[in-house]
Structures are given as structure tokens and as C-alpha cells.
Task: inverse folding
């Protein structure tokens, strides 16, 4: 019985799961790399090394199995994509609109699927309002430019206000039907979106501590594999759980690293938009004798998100959104407003600036 091995790489046999006695005999015979065994059979191996025929057969099986695994890995590497492939894929990325046209334009169409986006801001800047608006808009039918999906909404602070969600959903339904009519699609015949359908598409989970949050996040992969209609995962608010209930800094860093890795994998593997909200904290600079606000949780977490939008409200009550981090956009600040209908464009023009939050 022969085990032909057409091998072209010099992998050392010491890396293979061979028994010490047989390995020693092979090395003494000068057979120290995998290519040395090409075209050998168990009889030749027995005569040349003194290894029994049965043991020689087992060694060749291990060698050939290793070759198959190596070729399988090579086949996986052969699926490497060119820059053009990646560019074309990026053009096909779906987005969930915010109903703030200026912000959607700033993000190339809205909140992208397959990526992690974070909204940061002090209390009252509109973080939860954006989450509610996106949960509603994730249900918009594809016939008018939506992703026609469902949402998993993880609420950690009790900011999921159903009455506010109903107001936003009612306005979204009216807006979508108007768009459908404007495009010549005649209302319900093409756009059958209803408030009831929106509310049924949003699955809300409440958690009171970081342990519950980690458990939910780890279960998300199973949830998403069972319901492929889900296009949005919201965690509102992430910072509160880790800042208030976890004083062990090493454990906090470990949990945040696990959370970051899991959320990035979920976004990419299931092509869903992951939206997080984060608080702001004061960073003191002793050398300069001043301080400024930065997103909370720490420097390590600051590099997790693909996109980061910082929300703020000035002394006059005017709201603005700063695109603080994006893979292919420069920092841009624009105004927006929150009214009874939800998130909308500010009525005046906006300017682009480069300025830290």
C-alpha cells in the first residue's frame, strides 16, 4: 500500500504527532522534513529505518493527513480578494437611514451593515433617540430603499420608551408611504409598512449588569443564526454597566476585549449593523492645566468601532453630530434636530470643521 505525497514544502517532521521512538529512527535515517517521504511506501521505510511495516504505515498516514490539511489551508488562502473586489463589495453595502439626510450623506447612506457604529454624548444629547429611530428605520421595505429587517434592542438603563417608539414609528409609516406615492408606487400596493409591523420587528431585551450583558452578547450568534431577518443590534447604554458595577480594572479590560471581539465578529459574520451608545467622561491634562470631554470606557475601547459619532448640545439648545471616526471620511460636524417625529435635518445649512469633541 502506497501513500503518494507530492509535497513541495520543507516542514520539519518534529512538528507532527509522531511517537518518540519512531521519530528518533526517522531522524537517524536523515528523514527530517516532510518532502523526504515523497514517493516512499511502508516497505521502503521499513528497510531504510528499521521501523516495523505497521508503524511505517501509520507514519505515512499521519504525513499524508498533514499534507491534506496544509493544502486545505492553502485553498483558503487562495480565496484572498483583490483591492478591486473589496471596493466593489463596499459599493454594495446596505445602510439603515437615520432620516437626517445630512448625516446619512456623511455616512455614505446611513448606518452601514456589517460594521460597528458608536454614538457618544453627554446625557440628553440624543443617543437613545438615534437608537429608537434606527430600530424603526431598520424595518423600512427594500422597495423604497430600506433593509426590511428586524432589530435586537438591548436596553441597560431603561431608556427604551415605548410611547416614544410609537410616535417615531407612526411618523416613519407616514413618511414611507409618502415616499412610495412620490415614486409612483401607489401606497399599500408597494409599501405595506404599518406601525404594528414595525413594533413586531423590534425585540427588546433588558439587562441590569455586565454579567447579563455578556450572556446576551454570547447568545446573539445563536439568535442571529435562527432569525436571518435581524439587521440591527443595539446596545443602549454600554458604558453605564462597566463604569458603575465593575471596579476591577483588569477584569473590565478583559470583558471589554471579549465584548469587542464578539461584536465585530457578529457584525461581519451576520452582516448586521451593530450600534452602541457610550457616555462621555472628563480627561484631565495636568501639564496643560485643563481638561476636555472624551468618550468613556477607556483608550482600548476607542479603537473598536468602525464609525464613531459624537453628539452634543450647545447653550442655545442646538444639536450637532461630529463624525469623530470613520474608515473613509474626514471629521465632519453637522447640526440635526429631534422633534416629535424623531431624528430630522436641521432647517439651516451646516458647515464642515475639524475639531475635537
Result:
Amino acid at each position: 500500500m502506497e501513500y503518494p505525497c507530492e509535497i513541495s514544502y520543507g516542514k520539519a517532521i518534529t512538528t507532527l504527532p509522531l511517537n518518540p521512538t519512531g521519530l528518533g529512527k526517522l531522524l537517524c535515517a536523515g528523514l527530517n522534513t516532510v518532502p523526504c517521504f515523497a514517493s516512499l511506501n511502508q516497505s521502503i521505510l521499513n528497510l531504510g529505518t528499521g521501523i516495523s511495516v505497521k508503524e511505517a504505515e501509520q507514519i505515512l498516514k499521519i504525513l499524508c493527513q498533514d499534507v491534506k490539511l496544509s493544502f486545505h489551508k492553502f485553498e483558503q488562502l487562495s480565496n484572498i480578494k483583490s483591492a478591486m473586489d473589496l471596493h466593489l463589495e463596499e459599493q454594495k453595502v446596505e445602510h439603515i437611514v437615520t432620516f437626517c439626510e445630512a448625516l446619512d450623506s456623511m455616512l455614505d447612506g446611513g448606518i452601514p451593515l456589517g460594521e460597528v457604529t458608536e454614538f457618544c454624548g453627554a446625557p440628553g444629547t440624543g443617543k437613545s433617540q438615534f437608537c429608537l429611530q434606527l430600530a424603526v428605520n431598520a424595518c423600512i421595505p427594500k422597495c423604497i430603499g430600506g433593509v426590511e429587517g428586524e432589530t435586537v434592542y438591548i436596553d441597560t438603563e431603561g431608556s427604551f420608551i415605548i410611547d416614544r417608539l410609537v410616535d417615531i414609528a407612526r411618523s416613519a409609516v407616514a413618511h414611507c408611504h409618502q415616499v412610495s406615492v412620490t415614486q409612483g408606487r401607489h401606497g399599500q400596493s408597494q409599501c405595506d409598512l404599518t406601525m404594528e409591523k414595525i413594533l413586531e420587528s423590534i425585540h427588546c431585551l433588558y439587562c441590569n449588569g455586565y454579567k447579563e450583558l455578556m450572556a446576551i452578547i454570547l447568545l446573539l450568534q445563536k439568535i442571529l443564526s435562527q432569525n436571518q431577518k435581524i439587521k440591527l443590534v443595539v446596545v443602549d447604554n454600554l458604558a453605564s454597566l462597566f463604569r458603575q458595577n465593575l471596579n476591577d480594572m483588569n477584569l473590565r479590560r478583559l470583558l471589554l476585549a471579549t465584548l469587542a471581539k464578539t461584536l465585530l465578529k457578529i457584525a461581519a459574520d451576520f452582516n448586521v449593523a451593530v450600534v452602541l451608545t457610550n457616555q462621555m467622561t472628563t480627561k484631565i491634562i495636568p501639564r496643560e492645566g485643563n481638561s476636555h470631554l472624551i468618550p468613556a470606557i477607556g483608550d482600548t475601547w476607542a479603537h473598536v468601532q468602525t464609525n464613531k459619532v459624537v453628539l452634543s448640545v450647545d447653550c442655545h439648545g442646538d444639536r450637532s453630530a461630529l463624525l469623530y471616526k470613520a474608515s473613509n471620511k474626514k471629521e465632519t460636524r453637522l447640526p440635526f434636530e429631534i422633534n416629535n417625529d424623531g431624528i430630522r435635518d436641521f432647517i439651516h445649512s451646516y458647515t464642515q470643521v475639524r475639531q475635537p469633541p
In short: The chain has two domains: 13-77, 85-345.
